[in-house]
Write a structure and sequence with these properties.
2 helices, Jelly Rolls, alpha+beta
Length: 175
């Protein structure tokens, strides 16, 4: 249970009332929930619902996470580091990797926030610590589109993901 949030399922919590506050304890709790969640991630939903014009979520990812690269064609997106260090991996429409951007909650040799002003294929690669970030984008939510060029087979997906991790570490000036 996370104070001020209703449990939707073991990995999704929605804010209660009109003034949702997020404490350091809530961020730590969502990081713990991500470790225990069957899908390996967890989120605090700060907006009322899918039809809202502004969507904000605190998302926590475990160290081994690599979501299927996706895009929301309706809007750009912002990421603000709240905990840990991670890489925002961006891709062309053909799946070519663009330069990774490193975000760090403590701002150590990295930015703390990134705004994608236009829709772009992306995923997040955790690099250090318990990773949690604020994600903001425009609603209403109509679904994500997932990259067809991302490998479907487990073995191929693992190799591809490890290559992304390597590229993220190479882009990280602290490595």
């Amino acid at each position: 249970m996370i104070e001020g949030f209703t449990t939707v399922n073991p990995s999704v919590f929605t804010g209660e009332g009109d003034g949702v506050t997020v404490t350091a304890q809530a961020v730590a709790a969502v990081c713990t929930a991500a470790k225990l969640a069957p899908n390996g991630r967890a989120r605090l939903i700060l907006h009322h619902g899918a039809d809202d014009i502004l969507h904000e979520m605190i998302i926590a990812l475990p160290p081994t996470s690599c979501d299927h690269p996706h895009i929301n064609f309706r809007s750009g997106k912002s990421f603000m580091a709240l905990s840990g260090r991670f890489a925002v991996m961006r891709f062309t429409d053909e799946g070519d990797l663009l330069p990774p951007v490193i975000l760090d909650a403590a701002g150590k040799n990295a930015a703390i926030m990134m705004r994608l002003r236009t829709p772009v294929w992306h995923t997040i690669i955790p690099l250090e610590g318990e990773v949690a970030f604020l994600e903001t984008n425009s609603g209403p939510f109509t679904g994500n589109f997932f990259a067809e060029w991302f490998p479907a087979e487990d073995g191929e997906r693992e190799v591809y993901t490890e290559n992304l991790r390597r590229a993220a570490r190479e882009a990280d000036t602290r490595s």
